[in-house]
Write a structure and sequence with these properties.
Rhopdopsin 7-helix transmembrane proteins, transmembrane, receptor, sensory transduction, 5 helices, elongated, single chain, 119 residues
Length: 119
């Protein structure tokens, strides 16, 4: 059911973001800053999506869909803009890995809201 899926996401998505930052081997201060912003944003994204998922009211679904998109856009901002600032000081391989990560994130997380909106 939706409840189990959202509880799973509430645990796994923040952990996934922590793992992503950890494997990049960024400076300790940069990693900490990114994690302290990404984890709460991912939890907010999921928590705000749940009321829309379980509601039968279309207005509620749209409202919480929009509200959950705000933290999602913030996550993209942090991963594209803020993380991008620290890539100048990283080896070239890290920048390439982050580029692939960004594309994968948009391709997977970005498609989900569109699929949900169609059904």
């Amino acid at each position: 059911t939706a409840s189990y899926r959202y509880v799973d996401w509430l645990l796994t998505v923040p952990l996934l973001l922590v793992e992503v930052i950890a494997v990049l081997a960024l400076a300790k201060e940069v990693s900490r800053s990114l994690i302290m912003r990404l984890v709460p944003a991912s939890a907010a994204m999921i928590a705000l999506g749940y009321p829309g998922e379980v509601s039968n009211d279309q207005n509620t679904q749209v409202l919480y869909g929009v509200l959950s998109t705000i933290p999602f856009l913030y996550i993209l901002y942090v991963l594209f803009v803020e993380l991008g600032k620290s890539l100048d000081r990283q080896p070239e391989g890290v920048a390439a890995t982050v580029g692939r990560l960004r594309l994968l994130l948009i391709a997977t997380w970005g498609v989900y809201p569109m699929v949900i909106a169609c059904f």
